[in-house]
Amino acid sequence: MAFTIAVAGKGGVGKTTVAGLIVRALLERRDGPILAIDADPNTNFHQVLGLQVEMTIGDLREETLKRIKDLPPGVSKDQYLEYGLQQCLVESNGVDLLAMGRGEGPFCYCAVNHVLRRYIDLLSKNYKYVVLDNEAGLEHLSRRTTQDVDVLLVISDANPIALQAAARINKLADELQLRIGKRFLVLNNISDGLRAGLGAEALQSKIAQTGLALLGEIPTDETLLRLTLEGKPLSELPPTSPAKLAVTKILERILDLTPWPPSRS
């Protein structure tokens, strides 16, 4: 059973970058293959990982529904989807990527989605770890995309609006009774100047209001910001990168705090 780490949070807080740093930290552990899943319709997980996406699950879904009546004799819809899913999988050294892509269009997707979910579940069993980069906001929770997850990291910066969004994500996960083992808050892009300006007590109060335990903080990293602006992969970060070192420690805490095999509530 794959150990699944999902990230969520308000748009603009660095969610995809954090997911990418988790993948990089897992790669450095050399502890088994990793499946990265980009569940954000605004597909960009591949960029931080330095991979190229030719086809997304959304593309496959559209193509299947358009061609379903014209499949060759003896080729079932399930077979066609299984073949297409292999085309969607971007294979690399130590980490493979599956991009979900765009949302659903005007067709009836129920049967196709059922088959795809089944194949994705089967595919994930071939990996030791799955890292899921969710779309920003709350929709992925309402649609139960974030389901059967061992650890959910809710990413936020120190902005009160982002912390309020983190609180709503936590609350909605409770209301929907999603099968998530553990949930934590991770603060991103934190500097000493920012902390001093906000005030330690005020920041702690905002963190407490999320209802989430603070797992760790990722400091402002000028090299990381430059790579992000230039669209370069995280593999170009130096070993001394403050953000990279912080995420490595966060991953160690996750694996220390979560028993194996993990239990999902």
Describe the structure.
By secondary structure, the protein is an alpha/beta fold. Helices cover 45% and strands 19% of the residues. It has 11 helices and 7 strands. It has helices at residues 15-29, 45-49, 57-67, 77-88, 110-124, 139-142, 160-175, 192-198, 200-209, 222-230, 242-257; strands at 3-9, 34-39, 95-99, 129-134, 149-156, 180-190, 213-219. A 7-stranded parallel β-sheet has the order 3-2-4-1-5-6-7. Helix 7 (160-175) links the parallel strand 5 (149-156) and strand 6 (180-190). Helix 3 runs antiparallel to helix 4. The longest helix is centred in the middle third of the chain and has 16 residues, at 160-175. It is globular. The protein starts with a strand and ends in an 8-residue tail after the last helix.
